[in-house]
Write a structure and sequence with these properties.
Shape: globular
Strand content: under 5%
Number of strands: 0
Number of helices: 5
Order of helices and strands: HHHHH
Radius of gyration: 14 Å
Distance between the termini: 35 Å
Structural class: mainly alpha
Mean pLDDT: 88
């Protein structure tokens, strides 16, 4: 039975409207260079989710003892299926949106030669923000 909290969306719409808007806004706020910049992008992307989406403001339980780097290391290079990765456990637009944001940031910063490291740097920043939200 499908999860009633998920809705089907067209990937093109997600990429053009949602991902583009979040990426551009995060890029305006991000600072740093290299992987540090990608972490900053992930951190600011989560802050923007909280500002833009009521669903993202649902209080979350942070996994006991989990560090941002450990959660980011569980993210695959491929787009994750709903409910399969830590990025899907965070309330908001979903793990697929975060996947596309991370890849767009990596490409924008000229790091497509190691997309998995770039994605995980972005996800580390994202999960750091989540930890701060949970008071960790």
């Amino acid at each position: 039975m499908p999860d009633p909290s998920l809705i089907a969306v067209r990937t093109e719409v997600v990429l053009d409207v949602l991902v583009g808007s979040l990426h551009d806004a995060a890029a305006e706020r991000a600072q740093g260079e290299g992987l540090e910049w990608l972490e900053s992008m992930g951190w600011h992307a989560r802050a923007l989710e909280l500002e833009r989406f009521a669903a993202a403001r649902v209080p979350m339980e942070w996994p006991a003892g989990a560090a941002a780097e450990e959660l980011a290391a569980q993210e695959p290079l491929e787009r994750p299926a709903p409910g399969t990765t830590p990025s899907w456990s965070v309330a908001g637009p979903g793990g697929h949106v975060r996947h596309y944001l991370a890849l767009r940031a990596a490409h924008a910063h000229g790091r497509p030669e190691d997309p998995l490291a770039a994605k995980r740097a972005w996800m580390t920043g994202f999960f750091r923000h989540c930890g701060e939200e949970a008071g960790r």
